[in-house]
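for the writeup, i need someone to sanity check this before i put it in the appendix. the sequnce is what the collaborator sent (i think, or maybe the updated version? ugh). structure was predicted straight from it, no edits. if anything looks off just tell me and ill rerun, i have time this weekend
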Amino acid sequence: MTYEDRRKEWIRGRRKKRKHARIARLNRQVFRYMVVLALLWGGTSAVLHRPWRLNASKADVVVRGNHVVTSQQVKTALGDVTGPQIFQLDPRKLEKRVETLQAVKYAFVRRYAIPKPTIIVEILEEYPWATFATGPDSPPQDVISQSGRLISLKDFPSIAQPDLVIYGPPGFKLNGKSVKQWASWIGFIKAQTGEPVQSVDMRHSYEISVQDGDLFLKLGTADGTLTRRLGRLSSIISTLQPLKSRLEYVDLGLDNNIPLKVAKKSLDGKTTASSSANPLDRLQQAQMPGRNNI
């Protein structure tokens, strides 16, 4: 065999090897595609044929962080979550449903399909700030949260009732800003008197009063001057001590002076109520020296 024949044979052999390599590579690619298609078909079949639904008894709904609302109340607020498949449920809509509960400030809903369909509801509840009643003789009806929302004690009997009581008319409302302002004023009163505030009567917006230990304070209107008017309280605390047993109220509603109502004493030394016939007996103007511009 000549050199040219050997070279031609060598070239034909290389071509056959390249052809066989291409065929093997193509076979491997076809096999990979078939495996991928089989996995996709199997996964799709599993998703479509498996129920992926919650337990009909809602046993797969887990509620966390709730101290006031019960788990059953949260599950009831969620509505029907056992019918649709887990991936068809909208977490945002479910969160809004839970947030309709008065004691719930925020709700966070998470869905899990593996190992079994589950919904986890994280609850952030309102923090009680004060107890609400329509009057001193009326039983507490609601709790006022820090955001100003009224939480019904009837619907949430397990909620803690704060010691501070707010009296207001039916339909009374506060917002978060008002609660923050009143909390500041109440803390200011406590810091000056050393006694916690028991109640704030807001049934009449022009005649707000506060019960602070043994002191009954008339604040008038809660306007921009109230902080300044409350600041004068510390200057008369020492003066009020001798009158404490007969003092009926301190009026902080005026800008120039601080009227006091003191029950008068009879000749036998017993304390009697001030007469309503004589206005001078009913109201004693206790003007503090040097406090005209307070």
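The first strand starts at residue 61 and ends at 64. Residues 166 and 256 are 28 Å apart (CA to CA).
thx in advance!!
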